[in-house]
Amino acid sequence: MADRYDPVHAVDYAMLGVGSAVFLVNIGAFITIALNDHHFVPFRTKNTFVMGLALATAVCWWYGSFFYQGGMFGVDNLSLCRVTGIWFRWALGGFAYLCIMLYRLLVLYQILIRKRPARSLWILLLPAVVYTPGVVIAILPTVMTSLLDLQTVTDRTGANNHYCDLSTPIVALMWAYCGLLILLLAIFAIRIRHIKSTFNEFREVTWALIPLVVTIAVTAGLANSPYSHMYWSRLICNLTNLFAAVSFFWAVYGPSFFGFLFRRDAYLRRFNATLVRDGFQTIGSDTGHRGPSSSVTDCHRLPDKPHYLSASTLPVPSFDSLTAATSAALMSSHRRNESSDSRSLVIPVSVAGRHLIS
Hints:
Blueprint: H1 10-35, H2 41-44, H3 48-68, H4 78-113, H5 121-143, E1 148-154, E2 160-166, H6 168-191, H7 202-223, H8 231-262, H9 264-278, H10 319-338
Antiparallel strand pairs: 1-2
Helix pairs in contact: 1-3, 1-8, 3-4, 3-8, 4-5, 4-6, 5-6, 6-7, 7-8, 8-9
């Protein structure tokens, strides 16, 4: 049996360095996004605060998995098993990560499918209710020592090492709960697959779900095999976990972040063209330069919060003044078009529809 247990290997140190570097890049990218959230509209449509929580849970998930699988040092007490293997890896990591993804899908489903305000009680309650079993699953082995134990083994070098050993029913319950969360994500992703392309996260969630499914299959298979403590097995699990942990962040932010860094004006033109095609108002962002303004890069700032008006609070329209204002606007637009060689699409007023998600 000793030949199936590898001590800390150089590959483990290298994996820790790679993972830390990747998360430092992600954190740096998120800080850049957060600082420019109010100046670059495509960032604001992604719900920066919630994405920050998702990044924090991804960090907890990966480091918890790394240390729990014996990738760095021996475990000599149950408290370390509880912190890394149960709370960091699952309760504050994987379970919370999946529930945050579910919350983002529910917000889009509520606004763009049900056409209701996002500030609805069930939008907050459903992820909380779904997350509660995960917390219960984490509490059980924390308070019941019979469900968590230290396994003492002799590795290839003849030294004794300790590994965390969760009981089989708890392990099966954890993986089953992960499968249930992924199923819910897939259901709501399919429900929103036909929404406006400005907010169409079906593609983004799909790119995040595929690595998650692969990770669960690979990690569950290797973790319950006789080779779970071989260094190559730890490497495979940590690599797939890392890819799954960062895939959601870059699926959501990748195009807009690189567009912001390298081709800001061109990206904003495409973004506004998509808004116009989808029936939203033409909006833009500050480009950081001071020069002649355009309909793409110099527009009014979005409201911090969406406003929902009741028809009963609106004044009775004056059709005479409305007709006169419309005629004046059309004549003014015609004169501008005749005096200009360029033909840029400008929507002077908001198109009837819902505000962007902020």
